[in-house]
Amino acid sequence: MGFEGMWRDLAPVGRSASSGGYNRQPWASAESELRAWFAEQCAARGLTVETDGIGNQVAWWGAGDDGVLTGSHLDSVLDGGAYDGPLGVVSALAAIDTLRARGFEPGRPIGVGVFVEEEGSRFGRACLGSRLATGATTWDQAKELRDRDGVFLADAISGAGLDPSRGLVDLSRVGTFVELHVEQGRDLVDRDVAVGLASEIWPHGRWRFDFSGQANHAGTTRMEDRHDPMLTYAMTALAANKQARLAGQRATFGRIAVEPNGTNAVPALVTAWLDARASSDEALAELVDAIGRQATDRAERDGTSLTLTAESVSGSVAFDADLAARLARIGDWPVIPTQAGHDAGILSDAGIPTAMVFVRNPTGVSHSPEEHAEVPDCLAGVEALADVLAELDGTGDSA
What we know:
The protein is of the alpha/beta class. It has 12 helices and 15 strands.
């Protein structure tokens, strides 16, 4: 089955009939269906599949060490797009088909991997599967994480029929990792090219702001008598926008929780999560510090209080420049930065030489049902990935 056939298989899984977006949460039904689909596709190609105790999967073509691993993830953000993650998995399988059609025989093993909970949309830790697999996060640190419904990570994994005591996927045989991904911006659109390579990932993270106040009656409490954490949060959201714009960085409050969450009550607690990204580690720290200072100052004026907690922070990732330059020469592809986090960044931080291939997104929109890639560009991505895998395999024959 070729790229288009595999894509049609995946299209209905986890898709919302109302919005057209996808809800493929890790260790839930849609994502479990996709993991089963992946295992079936690998078996049809004669690839040996390893599934670890939390659901990470790796399938190998060929035996031995110092392998070339490609792949991505299958989970999505809430009401996300179709391409973020699955495009890299489907393209990886299609690239192996392409290499076989060329009569290519790998000199070193080529693998296809799927990492769980890349988005961090359920348990709040981006790239959790690859973090656990590389040791960047330990099981003791992760097992007590809870989702929005209060479900512990350990219970969610067990409920999906998995057993963490079986251990994690063995990455010791991985010599190089390449992740193909839909571009989550407009750089390739502006350049009018279908394929590019990554130079770096901006540092980014998630911070929880707990604004505490005093619950009270919405009608009988005078405005000047209130200790309203919603006002403190609102000013903080505006401050984040201003600080990010002034610095040319990124700051987003995309999720809040309110207690008691009543229409006719001044809230007692507003919890808001900040996603911040910047061009350097120093710029990121300065951005978050500036937002935190303004939030604290406003809380003092509002008679509220703020507790600021860093939940998940990833430093800047500079991909192997020599590797990127070597691969760029294959197709004269541009080398561009990305502001989005990826499993590729985690593996790079773990000391594995890593590269990324981007496929043009004509809308420039991601984490949304409007995320898109045209079929001809996807097929160009498959060919590019096949060329990259052949080059990395060491044969020198990428055509």
